[in-house]
Amino acid sequence: MRVSKSFEKLFAQLTETARTRPEGSGTVKRLDGGVHTIGKKIVEEAAEVWMASEFQSREEAAEEMSQLIYHVQVMMIALGLELEDVYRYL
Ligand SMILES: N=c1c2ncn([C@@H]3O[C@H](COP(=O)(O)OP(=O)(O)OP(=O)(O)O)[C@@H](O)[C@H]3O)c2ncn1[C@@H]1O[C@H](COP(=O)(O)O)[C@@H](O)[C@H]1O
């Protein structure tokens, strides 16, 4: 079971993963796929958030939202963005 984590903790973990490139990491694979591929995944997950929110359970919507957050963070790392670069617009 996954340990529960915050947006900041996940970002720190993914940043470290990108730096150390551990064997078998899905994140490393996604980063190597590049911005175009990561972008398509973001669009796919965003659609799944919409569908789950409108037609499925709140639980399933929450899970899709977590996946969208993950793929947005992968894109942030691919672009070299820090948390502050995004937070300044919130
Ligand atoms: N939070 C996530 C996370 N959310 C979503 N995903 C990925 O996004 C996929 C969900 O998308 P789909 O439902 O479309 O699944 P899929 O059809 O298998 O997707 P594709 O592989 O075909 O793109 C999952 O299978 C994961 O590959 C995540 N992958 C990793 N993490 C966390 O990121 C950290 C580092 O992970 P690794 O790089 O794999 O070690 C760990 O803490 C993980 O818990």
TrEMBL record:
It catalyses: 1-(5-phospho-beta-D-ribosyl)-ATP + H2O = 1-(5-phospho-beta-D-ribosyl)-5'-AMP + diphosphate + H(+). It comes from the Bacteria. It is an enzyme of class 3 (hydrolase). The keyword Hydrolase applies. It holds the Pfam family PRA-PH. GO terms for molecular function: ATP binding; phosphoribosyl-ATP diphosphatase activity. GO terms for biological process: L-histidine biosynthetic process. Belongs to the PRA-PH family. This is Phosphoribosyl-ATP pyrophosphatase.
